[in-house]
Task: inverse folding
């Protein structure tokens, strides 16, 4: 059974002329790691916020384990999200930030302490537990935000560019940690990233978005080797794929593509299309 079904998700922000999400359909299997990629402004965060319930959708439905949660309050959805901006509670220490979600769910004090120490160790922030967020660097704040999500054991994790403020070394380490964590917990994850290596190495499948529309949904290999359109072909891969214009012509029963060089006098180069 699909754990998370996004059915024809549409979103128009109040006062906006265009739809930001134009009918997104994705089925995410239980335990699957789906990465969401696409250019800035294509609607990735809007889709994540909609799944978490922080934005209301204007069409379609979000279904978790067969149950429509589209109108459910965020706190009742059993989904943990790490935001692009860290959204930490400024008056609480790191320890209290991580413990907060566990406390309101009624976990016993000693278990909370164990859990906070476990994630702090995992994220290498044990020395920061008694500091307030304002005293931390951006990368440290981001790790606390991850810790807060990891301390819970929700049905689904949503990560919106969780590693974007970390230095290169820590980023690679954290990527490995996230992969290991996923293998261990087998929790369903939807993960937004601008980093293609991250997208290709972490994902079971990749969803490519452009202008609020799904361009392709497939394994990293499928998306990389057999892009469904020119956008995906140009977007995935670094350096990106080059394109050349050819003319396709039929001669008898055969099809030929003809490449005409821009320089005058060059003979056209022809290939038979099989
Ligand atoms: N609260 C809002 N009110 C109105 N428009 C919004 C709001 N939030 C986002 N938008 C618009 O919706 C579109 C998609 O934004 P979104 O933040 O989802 O993009 P994104 O793919 O996450 O981009 P990035 O990669 O830069 O984070 C943008 O055109 C943005 O201006
Ligand atoms: Mg975003």
Result:
């Amino acid at each position: 059974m699909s754990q998370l079904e996004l059915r024809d998700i549409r979103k128009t922000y109040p006062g906006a002329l265009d739809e930001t999400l134009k009918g997104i359909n994705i089925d995410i299997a239980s335990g699957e790691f789906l990465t969401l990629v696409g250019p800035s402004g294509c609607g990735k965060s809007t889709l994540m916020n909609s799944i978490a319930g922080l934005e209301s959708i204007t069409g379609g439905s979000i279904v978790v384990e067969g149950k429509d949660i589209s109108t459910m309050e965020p706190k009742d959805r059993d989904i943990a999200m790490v935001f692009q901006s860290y959204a930490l509670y400024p008056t609480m220490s790191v320890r209290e930030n991580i413990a907060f979600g566990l406390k309101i769910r009624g976990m016993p004090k000693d278990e909370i302490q164990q859990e906070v120490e476990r994630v702090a160790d995992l994220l290498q922030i044990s020395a920061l537990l008694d500091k307030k967020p304002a005293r931390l660097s951006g990368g440290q704040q981001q790790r606390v935000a991850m810790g807060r999500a990891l301390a819970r054991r929700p049905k689904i994790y949503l990560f919106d560019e969780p590693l974007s403020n970390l230095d290169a070394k820590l980023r690679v380490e954290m990527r490995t940690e996230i992969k290991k964590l996923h293998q261990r917990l087998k929790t369903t994850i939807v993960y937004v990233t601008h980093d293609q290596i991250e997208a290709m190495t972490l994902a079971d499948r990749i969803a490519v978005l452009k202008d609020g529309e799904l361009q392709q949904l497939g394994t990293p290999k499928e998306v990389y080797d057999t892009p469904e359109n020119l956008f995906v072909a140009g977007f995935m891969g670094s350096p990106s794929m080059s394109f050349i214009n050819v003319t396709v012509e039929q001669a008898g029963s055969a099809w030929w593509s003809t490449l005409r060089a821009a320089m005058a006098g060059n003979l056209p180069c022809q290939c038979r299309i099989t």
User: Anything to note?
Assistant: The CA atoms of residues 37 and 194 lie 6 Å apart.
